[in-house]
Specification:
single chain; about 55% helix; about 210 residues
Length: about 210
């Protein structure tokens, strides 16, 4: 599994509250892979946000949205979430509902920033060309944070073991991201992420 330079604490503990900590526990109990995936995406999103000059509240909202971008999967049946094969059309519709479910779950925390973070969670599968879900947004209609999440989420998903396939090699993953630039992904986000990868001293797999 490839990781960028790690950071000890991607989210300031002072920024958390009991409801969010409870979500972390619930996600880990429901599906440890998704929990670990969200943790890695959080760390990647932090570094990408910093690349684009994000700081303060905006950067905290991005990292928290990244940490819980898949929280809606706690409502997806095991037969769909853990299926060891490709999903059919009906199953895919159920899986795609996790974005809306995730926004709803996070709004229930009652945090002052819940709506901003919830929107990022809702839109992390929107596509740059408008073909994504759930709202069919395109280009800069999609918040910067959500466009960042689309890249780092896809990268981590491709470079880790999934129920239906083994992890892809780093060069293969980068090539796929570049192919998706301008379609599913924002070209600027892809270029920045590839540059960030190139600055790493070495690809670490474990």
């Amino acid at each position: 599994m490839f990781e960028l330079n790690d950071c000890a604490s991607p989210i300031d503990t002072e920024y958390l509250n009991n409801s969010v900590l409870a979500l972390t526990t619930a996600l880990n109990e429901r599906d440890s892979y998704t929990n670990d995936h969200c943790d890695r995406v959080c760390r990647l999103a932090l570094q990408m946000g910093q690349c684009f000059g994000m700081q303060g509240q905006g950067l905290r909202e991005l990292t928290l949205a990244a940490r819980f971008h898949d929280i809606g999967k706690i409502g997806i049946p095991d037969a769909v979430l853990l299926k060891p094969g490709r999903l059919d059309e009906q199953e895919m519709a159920v899986m795609r509902s996790h974005a809306v479910r995730g926004e709803r779950v996070f709004l229930a925390t009652g945090r002052d920033d819940a709506s901003q973070i919830g929107r990022l969670i809702r839109h992390h599968h929107e596509a740059f060309d408008g073909s994504g879900y759930p709202d069919g947004l395109a280009g800069e209609q999609i918040q910067l944070g959500a466009r960042i999440l689309a890249v780092v989420d896809g990268f981590d998903a491709m470079t880790t073991t999934r129920p239906y396939r083994q992890p892809l090699a780093l060069d293969t993953t980068v090539a796929i991201l570049q192919q998706e630039a301008g379609n599913r992904l924002d070209p600027q986000m892809v270029a920045a992420f590839v540059e960030l990868l190139a600055k790493q001293p070495a690809a670490t797999r474990r």
